Amino acid sequence: MKNHLSLLIIAPVFFFGLFVAHTEAATQCSFYRDLGPGMAGEDVRCLRTYLNEEYLHPQGWTLDQTTDAYNGQVQYAVTMWQQSHGVYPATGYFGATSRTRYQSVAQYATPSHLNVFQNNSRDEEEAQRAIEDAFDRITDAEDEIDDSNSTSDKKRAEDILHEALQELFDALVSYFDKDFDNALSSAEDAEASADDAIDEVDGNNNNSHDDDVEDMLDDARDDLDDVRDLVNEAEDDDEDTGDADEFLDDAEDLLDDAEDELDDGNEDEAEDLIEDALDLIEDAEDEL
Questions:
Q1: What is the mean pLDDT of the chain?
Q2: Residue 121: what are its φ and ψ, rounded to 5°?
Q3: pLDDT beyond 60 at 108
Q4: Which residue has the higher pLDDT, 103 or 16?
Q5: Same domain, yes or no, for 155 and 187?
Q6: What is the C-alpha to C-alpha distance for residues 176 and 85, in angstroms, rounded to an integer?
Q7: pLDDT of the residue at 61
Q8: Residue bearing the bigger pLDDT, 211 or 262
Q9: Domain range for 136
Q10: Is residue 10 in a domain?
């Protein structure tokens, strides 16, 4: 799971000022080759230092300087750096265009500022909130997966979480492209995928939901019996009970169907049937 943390770490830093650059003290690096994931060397270490000093350290987080590896964290950091400096396509590969752009921004002492969330439009704010919600849900999903004891469920959940991370990344890229509708849509997809990942491993919550529906069914049957007693008392007193008996019979049929659905593991269908039955029980009580 930890290989998924790169975007999760970059995203909150991004939203709270990642791209406020401080180039006066920028590290000077000599890049003689294209850099990308899987590579290592002192030039990669220098790139990590540069990214730390320019963006990450002021936010309380840094790339690990004990390694010279170009890992996923570096790739995402470079991608965001490329976005903020107009390097396209922003893929996270530090190639010739990125090296040229680095030289132009690192050799001068003029600071560069990009305040991404000032004077936001409504569309921007909605996209921002959706991205932040997706990030929070992905963090929850990662915690659930880490706590899971099922290897098979964890693997499926990790695959789904990878999709969520990619959707969140797409949302970030769309935001920078000012395509706020697509940013919003991608962020919502990311949050939904994170929910799916949680569902894969959250057996305890599923069992809890089963118990809740069973309790709901028991309570509904108790309500039905109580109202039926009231109806019988009213009939013994020769009072008009209207359609109360018919409502209660229909409610009982729905509760029987709900029990069957629950036995088959269809908790949502069972819950819907119970709610319909409760409505009929209430209608029967209104008849008295």
A1: 79
A2: -80, 170
A3: no
A4: 103
A5: yes
A6: 11
A7: 65
A8: 262
A9: 122-201
A10: no
Whole-angstrom distance, CA of residue 80 vs CA of residue 54: 12
Task: Quote the pTM value.
Answer: 0.39
Quick one: average pLDDT of 12-32?
52
Backbone angles phi, psi at 63, to 5 degrees: -70, 145
Which residue's entry shows tokens 């029987």? 256
Query: How many CB atoms neighbour CB 249 within 10 A?
Result: 15
- Using CA atoms, how far residue 101 sits from 46, 58, 185, in Å, is 16, 22, 31
2 lies in a domain? no
Q: Which residues pair with 40 in a beta bridge?
A: 69
When mean pLDDT is compared across 5-9, 151-155, 218-222, the lowest value belongs to 5-9
Q: Annotate the chain with three-state secondary structure.
A: CHHHHHHHHHHHHHHCCCCECCHHHCCCCCCCCCECCCCECHHHHHHHHHHHHHHHHHHCCCCCCCCCECCHHHHHHHHHHHHHCCCCCCCCCECHHHHHHHHHHHCCCCCCECCCCCCCCHHHHHHHHHHHHHHHHHHHHHHHHHHCCCHHHHHHHHHHHHHHHHHHHHHHHHHHCCCHHHHHHHHHHHHHHHHHHHHHHCHHHHHHHHHHHHHHHHHHHHHHHHHHHHHHHHHHCCCCCCCHHHHHHHHHHHHHHHHHHHHCCCHHHHHHHHHHHHHHHHHHHHHC
User: Using CA atoms, how far apart are residues 189 and 251, in angstroms rounded to an integer?
Assistant: 38
Please tell me whether the peptide bond between 111 and the residue prior to it is cis, using omega within 30 degrees of 0.
no
Share above pLDDT 90 across residues of the chain, in percent, rounded to a whole number: 25
Q: How far apart are CA 37 and CA 94, in angstroms?
A: 9
Note the residue count of the chain.
288
Location of structure tokens 């030289």: 103
Averaged pLDDT, 203-222: 73
Number of domains into which the chain is organized: 3
| Domain assignment of residue 12, yes or no | no
- Convert the pLDDT of each residue in 60-89 to its tens digit: 567 888 889 998 888 888 888 888 788 888
Tokens for 92, please give them: 């996270």
User: Of 168, 201, 234, which residue sits at a domain end?
Assistant: 201
